[in-house]
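Two folds, back to back.
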Amino acid sequence: QVQLVESGGGLVQAGGSLRLSCAASGRTFSTDVVAWFRQVPGKEREFIARINWSAGSTYYADSVKGRFAISRDNAKNTVYLEMNSLKPEDTAVYYCAARNEVVVRYDRWGQGTQVTVSA
């Protein structure tokens, strides 16, 4: 069974940094696109960033471009989200998700990790 496990969330002051991790078990990311999303209660889930595992190409939402960076560690089969210059509006539950690179729908999701940014 494929599992995605996020870690690294927590409480940080505005302007601070956090690094989230998404580790996969059960299969490797070798042909996947791995993405980060976030969700605030009562709002729709928001796409943050994605990385094509094989090509290493990345894409970001405008709301985080220049502040967040997505990366991968092949040896650890882990995707990271480095978050800098955090703002209170970045507060949300952050989820990692994965899909095969030839499909559109993300079909594997982690349990989420809470990020809280205080003013």
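---
second:
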Amino acid sequence: QVQLVESGGGLVQAGGSLRLSCAASGSIFSFNVMGWYRQAPGKQRELVAGITDSGITNYADSVKGRFTISRDNAKNTVYLQMIGLKPEDTAVYYCKLDQWNWGRKSEYWGQGTQVTVAS
């Protein structure tokens, strides 16, 4: 089993910055992808950014140039640095881990951390 614990959310003024962290523990395999998703009230959960174990990244168009995802494989931790925050970035942010072992995929979610951007 894998546990994901997020931290770093909070209330910030528009234009401000926050850094989210997600620490993974348990049975973590080498071949994995970690990512951040978000869900605003009344909306579907959406991908914000993802990063492979080798460091390949992808971003939602809405956050490109403002958010940066990174990871520390030694600590099994993924980060999301957010700058230039906008009120529309307000959501619960979830960390996700996808991993593969012998062709079998497993996925895990964190409990979520609230990010609120005041205008």
